[in-house]
Design goal:
- It is a single chain.
- By secondary structure, the chain is an alpha/beta fold.
- The protein folds into three domains: 116 residues, no CATH class; 161 residues, Rossmann fold (3-Layer(aba) Sandwich); 107 residues, Ubiquitin-like (UB roll).
- 30% of the residues lie in helices and 21% in strands.
- Strands 1, 2, 3, 4, 5, 9 and 10 form a seven-stranded mixed β-sheet that branches. Strands 12-11-15-13-14 form a five-stranded mixed β-sheet. The protein has a three-stranded mixed β-sheet with strand order 6-8-7, covered by helices on one side.
- Helix 2 packs parallel to helix 6 and helix 2 runs parallel beside helix 7.
- The protein is globular, with a radius of gyration of 25 Å.
- The relative contact order is 0.10.
- The chain binds guanosine-5'-triphosphate, potassium ion and magnesium ion.
- Pfam families: MMR_HSR1, MMR_HSR1_Xtn, TGS.
- InterPro entries: Beta-grasp_dom_sf, DRG, G_OBG, GTP-bd, GTP-binding_2, GTP1-OBG_CS, P-loop_NTPase, Small_GTP-bd.
Length: 416
């Protein structure tokens, strides 16, 4: 029996099993079984790397966004509109067959946008080009799930399920469960609060499930797994069985997702209003070029991008080319900023001067752990270098609290 058939069989068994206190352990075990099979399914066939056939696109710019959706929802039309790169759009399904990259220039940053073939139910099991598309989604920093506003709401659930099946978790943070394998010492199970979903017995049962798996199936694949009998687990929140399995599997990817409802030109205003009010959703029309600026602003926000402008000592800030950091990836502390410029810079730094929303006064003298905000200006003061004008920057005299550097100030010369 193939892996997919095995998954189907267990799913069938789960559907038949009543959900109650008595069956809770059995259901938990079945869930772990499915998770293990899905992980096996993700391993590329022997002798291949997994991607291939036009889907290998080099990362570029300050972040990567993937367009995921059913066929003919308008993904290619959207890519062409936002990036200027032509991606063929047509009224028939599966017009796009590979991954087409484009670049969005926004706020002095470059965002890589990827157009992809449409996916359908069963994509996670390899239907169509589902597996390749999902692999690209996993490599991105943000997923735009493009939906046809005139079609069934069920599409959103189907796609979410397909992505979940391969270990993608949308708009969710990793479970607060500490999980560590040990070489000796048995299993220690602790929690910082009352647990309502998982108890010690269920937890042991799930672990047991994994031990058996690793004894039977090539332990060489994951050498560390032979020690899974010895683990320490600490629940820091009232997590579920699914959360526990996610932590044990350890290969989940937590990605933000914005649901983009396209083609609102063909539905009524009441329906548009309903869709627009849903969480993590935005409504657009490619045909009427409606709301595309809002979509860009939303992408920027979700990616947590932060522009930092450098100001050399005694000179005007360089507003032409920011250092772009991300709060989600890599962080946006002064240390991250310095590492971005040059790896050896950090050890030479005495402190930095910061103007902008993150500083309490203008300029603020900050250490390397200070967190920077979008559009801050930073001057690096190295060891043995003298502080310029003793901090009497032009912003200081009329500072009234945290504020962004305005466009007017960017254009005006900065007195130093
Ligand atoms: N009414 C309307 N039609 C649109 C809109 N955006 C795209 N379309 C049409 O929808 C059809 C499909 O557009 P595509 O951009 O090819 O869709 P896709 O999602 O890339 O499709 P596949 O590559 O086949 O998965 C085309 O006929 C477009 O003209 C829109 O905002 N409103
Ligand atoms: K199409
Ligand atoms: Mg297309």
């Amino acid at each position: 029996m193939g892996i997919i058939e095995k998954i189907k069989e267990i799913e069938f068994e789960m559907a038949r099993t009543q959900k109650n206190k008595a069956t809770e352990y059995h259901l938990g075990q079945l869930k772990a079984k499915i998770a293990k099979l899905r992980t096996q399914l993700l391993e590329p066939p022997k002798g291949t790397t997994g991607a291939g056939d036009g889907f290998e696109v080099t990362k570029f710019g300050h972040g990567r966004v993937a367009l995921i959706g059913f066929p003919s929802v308008g993904k290619s039309t959207l890519l062409t509109l936002l990036t200027g790169t032509q991606s063929e759009a047509a009224a028939y399904e599966f017009t796009t067959l590979t991954c087409i990259p484009g670049i969005i220039n926004y706020n002095d940053a470059k965002i890589q946008l990827l157009d992809l073939p449409g996916i359908i139910e069963g994509a996670s099991e390899g239907k169509g080009r589902g597996r390749q598309v999902i692999a690209v989604a996993k490599s991105s920093d943000l997923v735009l799930m493009v939906l046809d506003a005139s079609k069934s709401e069920g599409h959103r659930q189907i796609l979410t399920r397909e992505l979940e099946a391969v270990g993608l978790r949308l708009n969710k943070r990793p479970p607060q469960i500490y999980f560590k394998r040990k070489k000796t010492g048995g299993i220690s199970f602790n929690s910082t609060m009352q647990l309502t979903n998982v108890d010690e017995k269920l937890c042991y049962q799930i672990l047991h499930e994994y031990k058996i798996h690793n004894a039977e199936v090539k332990p060489a694949l994951k050498p560390s797994c032979q020690y899974w009998r010895f683990v320490s687990i600490l629940f820091r929140e009232d997590a579920t069985v699914d959360d526990l399995i996610d932590v044990i599997e350890g290969n989940r990817k937590y990605i933000k997702c914005v649901y983009v409802y396209n083609k609102i030109d063909v539905i009524g205003i009441d329906d548009v209003d309903k869709l627009a009010r849903q969480a993590n959703s935005i409504v657009i029309s490619c045909n009427l070029k409606l709301n595309l600026d809002r979509l860009l602003a939303r992408m920027w926000e979700e990616m947590g991008l932060v522009r930092v402008y450098t100001k050399p000592q005694g000179q005007q800030p360089d507003f032409s080319e920011p250092v772009v950091l991300s709060t989600d990836r890599g962080g946006c502390s002064v240390e991250d900023f310095c590492n971005h410029i040059h790896r050896s810079l950090l050890k030479d730094i005495k402190y930095v001067l910061v103007w902008g929303a993150s500083s309490k006064h203008y300029p603020q003298r900050c250490g390397t752990q200070h967190c920077l905000c979008d559009e801050d200006v930073v001057q690096i003061v190295k060891k043995k270098e003298k502080e310029e004008d003793g901090g009497r920057g032009r912003f200081k005299s009329h500072n009234t609290g945290p504020a962004r550097i305005s466009d007017r100030e960017k254009k005006a010369p900065l007195k130093t």
